Amino acid sequence: MNIGIFIYRDAEVLDFSGPFEVFSTASRLCGTESPFSVFLIAEGSEAVTARAGYTVVPHYSIDDHPPLDVLIISGGVHTQQMTNEKILAWVKQQSEYVKLTATVCTGIFILAQAVESLSCSVTTHWEDINDLKAMFSRLDVIQGVRWVDEGSIVSSGGISAGIDMSLHLVSKLHRENLAVKTARQMEFAWVRSA
Amino acid sequence: MNIGIFIYRDAEVLDFSGPFEVFSTASRLCGTESPFSVFLIAEGSEAVTARAGYTVVPHYSIDDHPPLDVLIISGGVHTQQMTNEKILAWVKQQSEYVKLTATVCTGIFILAQAVESLSCSVTTHWEDINDLKAMFSRLDVIQGVRWVDEGSIVSSGGISAGIDMSLHLVSKLHRENLAVKTARQMEFAWVRSA
Q: Residue B34 sits in a domain of what CATH number?
């Protein structure tokens, strides 16, 4: 299963490195029968400077990545992506193609901007709840939860909540026992209920 | 205060991105009076492929970084560093110079290998407790804790425990209230007692 994490300039570091750690650790624990292949995708193929000057090299650009099963959109300073027509078109196209689209933190703003028909329950960082409600009145924005699972759309709260959501996705897409073992390997106190 | 995080080939992704997120978020919350400058340091200046193919560009090499106040050594596949004389000499020299040396996960193996006189209480990933005891009998290896604070040497358990330890360091090096605010910003359930 191919898990693509979308990153961009000033994306929040833990929003993408947390889910990357979860899916890569889960795969490592399965040895040769690794259920997930996880990689970072950016608009171009050059290195991306995420928030606070943390520079990471994407595995693929939006023009050359393998077919995705899951798209994860990280949060951070997402504002530039909200008017980037190339990114919005790619997110819309991918969200129609993949099994599941997930967002971390303010990544939901990008997904909601790209997919006009999106009108389910979602969440985001506690600081951005009111902005999300104001900007997208068609969404049912839920506060005070680690993540919201609406089937093919799963959104998480801020920053570290993306780790809890990713463990939930391991459980949902593969099996619960692997998510439990992954959390134990990461010494992470997984909040299993949303 | 300059916080340098040492990374290397096959370092564990969350071991360095977690502490980076903590110190950079703590700084951001302080606005213009940012107490910390956090950066990644590698042996060379070229991009480093950490575990599972995650490639990050260090801010500095061990030959050109600014003077450090705190050195954080990440864990992961640390074995190659255990016989890397250039790295061991640099770690020893830095540990004598800085206010505080911290380790995440198996980073303690590198520190103990570099500093022969190290003989305090430490911890590591639960999977590596017995190896650490067997390899360094002069250390008092403690199991089942998030971190161990021995004044100028602070070591954490595995992977995500590095986030708890980093929040503790924000509290210790600056003030507790900033650590609480940082954990809240990260939506992280900080385990405040070791």
A: 3.40.50.880
Q: Is residue B134 part of a domain?
A: yes
pLDDT by residue for chain A (194 residues), tens only, comes to: 999 999 999 999 999 999 999 999 999 999 888 999 999 999 999 999 999 999 999 999 999 999 999 999 999 999 999 999 999 999 999 999 999 999 999 999 999 999 999 999 999 999 999 999 999 999 999 999 999 999 999 999 999 999 999 999 999 999 999 999 999 999 999 988 76
User: Residue A188 is nearest to which of B28, B55, B160, comparing CB atoms?
Assistant: B160
Q: Which of B20, B125, B160 sits opposite A13 (nearest CB)?
A: B20
For residue B56, give how far its alpha carbon lies from the nearest alpha carbon of chain A (Å): 4
> What is the enclosing helix (H) or strand (E) of B22?
helix B13-29
State the complex-level ipTM: 0.97
What range does the domain containing B161 cover? 2-185
Q: Does A17 touch chain B (CB under 8 A)?
A: yes
Task: Please tell me the total count of domains within chain A.
Answer: 1
Tell me if residue B175 falls in helix, strand or coil: coil
Domain for residue B55, yes or no? yes
Q: Residues 6 or more apart from A102 whose CB is under 8 A from it? A: A19, A70, A71, A72, A73, A153, A154, A155, A156, A165, A166, A169
Is B54–A157 a contact, with Cβ atoms under 8 angstroms apart?
no
Assigned domain for B192 exists: no
- The whole-model pTM stands at 0.98
